[in-house]
């Protein structure tokens, strides 16, 4: 039904939903709205001019009141209520507007109460467009033009309109948007009607078709002088595709237009059903904070650096990145949008699946893009967090607001995706896919839980309740299984396996138990077994012990093998026989074990040496990273010799052979290796490479074509690291003047790496100057904190300027500054971190968790380095 618009004759007194609750007034909910009322349908009208900081809105909500109540609460943040009217059974219910703190607004019936049945709420209000963070309705300027875009996930729809802002409430929405006539306006559905906006000269009213049932966080809109690129149609239903770019940048959507139709078709093939919505727009946001893209129904938004590229910047890494992220967001159209999570404790179900599906689709799109770098890095990030005693579960309870934000982390995306890969192998890809299809059909246009998903997989695979328990063991408890692997060749050849939780030296994490699906490869023979809590023998399929054994076939499963010394030695000698993904996983595992004090640095360097001889450039990239991660201050005399030998005999000769110049015939993997290896080789002391980087950086400043686009970041990082005053001045000048956001990002990253003490202070000081906005300031300070050489100085700067940074940086980003500080590794630094952030962390959204994890990582680093 279409909701009628009925307004009070006279407006109520202006009251802010963000005002503190008056003494004696009805108390707002503590966290969730509860089930006093349930939304049925929304109609929203917004009036927005991107050039102005304010907006106004009207929302009508048809709802079912489930039980009698004196007050109905809605979610609302930083909205001023101008008027409100409620109707039930054709009678008006006068209301008082009750402030409800940061997240709620209440409507108190005057002289009566709300009774069970259908009610219609009509609310007029106004608010402010977010000027810095990319949340709610925010506005940004790009090359002199203003744009407004929405970002409502997870709980920011309440910044745009009063609503029931929880994912389980899926209802139809009808949006009407008034905007200046020169602006393009888009939303989730096709535009149904456009005409003059009454009472606003030079404005157009855009009426959009009613949506399918959606939760509030998937509603979306964008307004501004976008250029619209027609992408034609794709898929089983010939879905209309478009790409909306900032003014003057339409040609930069070329690759997105080329590849997106194929991505949509590949996903339709996997899910066995057509794209489930009416159209698909891809919208560019100039600059985002805390996210890169968002899967709004029918209107995906992307940071401009992901979606757009000039002909020069349209490199293979750019194409690969766009395709992977677009596949992730498109996968959400089925898994997350068609079927939506019932509550935020199942955020992993959306994000882990989309991450896993994005990697799978990328390989189907282009088998040469095997996503090995992405998958390897993702698994590494997950292991690094999951080894902590403070690690959370994949499926974690969400009982307060900070828990919602905490769910969008490496455990959700990366561990979750690795767990899905593990169980796809266990169930077989075909049966796993059948389970996914059954799940989507069963819960289409509704909500579902992890139990629903696991049950569908088990049924498709013909597995009983024990299989469900195995899956739950990985998502409902934290931690990583550590499998100690040995061969017993005395009589009947077998693999001896002992399982325990990977607990770093000094960890207080409790022991846990899993049934771990593990697969082993002996040459061309693969066999799998379910590894339980007790030590067990896995009989080998062959008549004799193999020369070498790989204990994580394809390198994607979520556990860490630790090989007995003879087996490890043999595997390193035959490392060329490992696939690239297996060598990557083995290298990552060695790094995690060494960082945890469970493997000597000497042995980790031996694995790195083996990786550097592997034929795959991808494997050599990870091996170079492993060498780089072993800080000189940690090394014993013998380990220093080993590292120096690897540098002299492997890394530096390879870097010099590759050089800063691309060559005809270079593969994409070789180009990627060059961009990783050359900065490290220069940092390790190669003066010639340092000097060449400086020359190239100066040439690039004068003429962008002087450096291949695949090497721009590597050249600028290296040149910035060793910059003198002249080069620093050139880099800084361009960083604060360029209108190209990708260039600015590269330049800020380079400034964050400057090693000269006086220049570094100037670079850090740039974060507080007027010529740097809060988003750019955050980028620069994070880059400095992540740089090993500059971390301590950047920490000192943060401590000295904390209040000024907190005032300037986007809200909710200060907690993130603690994450790179987890790499501090001395008792003095530990005391500084503990003292400075102990109380401050409590005041930051997500701060307590970031603080606990960073402090634990510092403690474990100290314990591991003292252990050897």
Q: Overview of this structure, please?
A:
By secondary structure, this protein is α+β, with helices and mostly antiparallel strands. The chain contains 27 helices and 29 strands. Strands 1, 2, 3, 5, 6, 9, 12, 14 and 15 form a 9-stranded mixed beta sheet that branches. Strands 17-18-19-21-20 form a 5-stranded mixed beta sheet. Helix 1 packs across helix 4, helix 5 crosses helix 7 and helix 7 packs across helix 8. The chain starts with 14 loop residues before the first strand and ends with a helix. The relative contact order is 0.06. The N terminus is likely disordered.
Write the topology of this structure.
Blueprint: E1 15-16, E2 37-48, E3 54-65, E4 71-75, E5 79-88, E6 91-93, E7 95-100, E8 104-109, E9 117-128, E10 136-142, E11 145-151, E12 173-180, E13 184-187, E14 191-196, E15 203-208, E16 221-224, E17 227-234, E18 239-245, H1 254-271, E19 279-285, E20 293-294, E21 299-303, H2 304-307, H3 316-334, E22 339-341, H4 347-365, H5 372-386, H6 401-406, H7 410-427, H8 429-442, E23 446-448, H9 450-461, H10 465-475, E24 481-488, E25 494-501, E26 516-522, E27 525-531, E28 536-539, E29 560-563, H11 565-573, H12 580-595, H13 601-612, H14 617-629, H15 637-658, H16 668-683, H17 687-702, H18 712-721, H19 725-735, H20 741-751, H21 757-765, H22 774-786, H23 791-800, H24 802-808, H25 818-821, H26 827-840, H27 847-867
Parallel strand pairs: 2-12, 18-19, 19-21, 22-23, 24-29
Antiparallel strand pairs: 1-5, 2-3, 3-9, 4-8, 5-6, 5-9, 7-8, 10-11, 11-16, 12-15, 13-16, 14-15, 17-18, 20-21, 24-25, 25-28, 26-27
Helix pairs in contact: 1-3, 1-4, 3-4, 4-7, 5-7, 5-12, 7-8, 8-9, 12-13, 12-14, 13-14, 13-15, 14-16, 15-16, 16-17, 16-18, 17-18, 17-19, 18-20, 19-20, 20-22, 22-23, 26-27
